[in-house]
Design goal:
Elements lengths: L9 H10 L21 H13 L12 H17 L7 E5 L2 H19 L7 E5 L4 H10 L2 E5 L9 H6 L5 E7 L11 H10 L3 E5 L7 H6 L16 E5 L11 E5 L2 H5 L3 E3 L7 E3 L8 H38 L4 E3 L7 E6 L4 H10 L5 E3 L4 E5 L8 H18 L5 H11 L3 H13 L6
Parallel strand pairs: 2-3, 2-4, 4-5, 5-6
Antiparallel strand pairs: 1-7, 6-7, 8-9, 10-11, 11-13, 12-13
Helix pairs in contact: 2-10, 3-10, 4-5, 10-12, 11-12, 11-13
The chain binds pyridoxal-5'-phosphate.
């Protein structure tokens, strides 16, 4: 498509937009298990209204828009309070989990520069299940990520993590929970050790931050993970996941304002004026910030508890149902409402394909091969149908034992490819191919 010579009418534009939707995942029907977090039309309407009201405003300059400054301050206070933030905690709204994690790593690097002159090649010890945004941060900021293995319960092995700490370690991390298996790492043990050794400790609660506090209040036993654990120095928690706000909203919160200062960027010699920016982005869209404030206030504790109850009910139903299907096995004991399941009897990638043919979009995992579900309240209504389809598809594969072909074969190949570094150029080629893909 070349640049249009003449503009279209509003109606033509709208039709063009809708026409391009063909093939999109149908999240509205509860058939997807990632990417979209939907707590109902009313919540979405509140988010959209707030988003549009502040569609044009820009938090790059908080002096120009005190509204956005106030929203941000309120949201950070609300969320940090939920995490047991001590007096003086401070945070920032970012565009998403990735930016929050980038900031946590960048702050740790600056902190080490200021306080640990012996550190010349900074390292961080992270579980192998830590989100790849941390690998991105390692790549961008020159902090080496050293990976600690898991125990049999899919939580990081704290002893092994501690053994990986060197005189160059500046930061340790754990997840609450980690995305692949929905389990919370042993944060108390790890953060206690980090504190003793004078290291920073970040908890990636991007997916769980707006969920675990409610599950705990509903009586579920959640391993301690937030600022109530003394060694935890920062937490990332997304609002656009289980906070159900508009996309483009996450928080990164530090135990103290002093720690947050290492995140900030200031440049004083630009002819365009003094430039000060708290995070990665320059322009900071007002929409997601206003929507975050709106949804947190709209739902309040009672709203989030109600939604968490539904999500937990759907999760329990799915976990019980999957565990009862011969040949399938849920991995570990998930703390949150995301989990993975696998099989020793059927090819799970073929199972993913078979479910896909019935309209269910289930994410694939590797090392080992598994399918992944991230449950939201909308899944309560469709859990029965999902389980019935899953049972049928599994049974069919168990009895017919077909040879993997098509994308199931491709997933299988990628998951077991022995030389992982050789995969990178293949994936880069695949990304280039998006340009020509219909
Ligand atoms: C545990 C965890 N951390 C970080 C992220 C990254 O968040 P985002 O995709 O908003 O950048 C995710 C995304 O799923 C996640 O599950």
């Amino acid at each position: 498509m070349s640049f249009p010579k003449q503009g279209m009418s509003k109606d033509e534009v709208a039709r063009g937009l809708e026409a391009k939707r063909e093939g999109d995942a149908e999240w509205q029907k509860g058939k997807t298990f990632s990417l979209v977090y939907n707590a109902g039309e009313d919540v979405m309407a509140v988010a959209k209204d707030a988003y549009l009201r502040f569609f044009s405003e820009n938090a790059l300059n908080p002096m120009a828009f005190p509204s956005l400054r106030r929203f941000e301050r309120d949201v950070v206070k609300m969320v940090g309070g939920l995490f047991g933030g001590p007096d003086g905690f401070a945070g920032t709204l970012t565009s998403g989990g990735t930016e929050s994690l980038l900031m946590a790593v960048k702050s740790a690097r600056e902190h080490a520069k200021a306080t640990r002159p012996g550190v010349t090649k900074p390292e961080m010890v992270v579980p192998i299940t830590i989100h790849p945004a941390v690998e991105k941060a390692a790549h961008y900021f020159g902090v080496k990520a050293v990976h600690a293995p898991l125990r049999d319960d899919f939580r990081v092995d704290p002893k092994k993590a501690m053994e990986l700490v060197t005189d160059q370690t500046i930061l340790m991390m754990g997840s609450a929970p980690a995305y692949p298996h929905g389990v919370v790492d042993p944060i108390e043990e790890l953060a206690g050790f980090a504190k003793e050794r004078g290291l920073l400790f970040h908890v990636d609660a991007c997916v769980g931050g707006m969920l675990l506090p409610w599950l705990e209040r509903l009586g579920r036993k959640i391993p301690a993970w937030d600022f109530r654990v003394p060694g935890v120095t920062s937490i990332s928690a997304d609002l656009h996941k289980y906070g159900y706000t508009a996309k483009g909203a996450s928080t990164v919160i530090y135990r103290s304002r002093e720690l947050r200062r290492f995140q900030h960027f200031v440049y004083t010699d630009w002819p365009g004026g003094i430039y000060a920016s708290p995070s990665v982005t320059g322009t900071r869209p007002g929409g997601p910030i206003a929507a975050a404030w709106a949804v947190l206030n709209y739902l309040g504790e009672d709203g989030y508890l109600r939604i968490a109850r539904q999500t937990l009910d759907a999760t329990n139903q799915l976990i019980e149902g999957i565990s009862a299907i011969p040949g399938l096995r849920v991995m570990g004991r998930p703390d949150a409402t995301i989990f993975a399941f696998t099989s020793d009897e059927v090819d799970v990638f073929m199972l993913g394909e078979a479910m896909g043919a019935r309209g269910w979009k289930v994410d694939r995992q590797q090392l080992p091969a598994a399918l992944h579900l991230m449950v939201t309240p909308g899944h309560l209504a469709v859990a029965g149908q999902f389980l019935a389809d899953l049972r049928e598809c599994t049974e069919h594969l168990r009895t017919t034992k077909p040879v993997a072909e098509g994308s199931a074969a491709m997933y299988g190949m990628l998951a077991t490819f022995p030389d992982r570094t050789a995969l990178e150029p293949m994936i880069l080629d695949f990304m280039d191919g998006f340009e020509t893909m219909e």
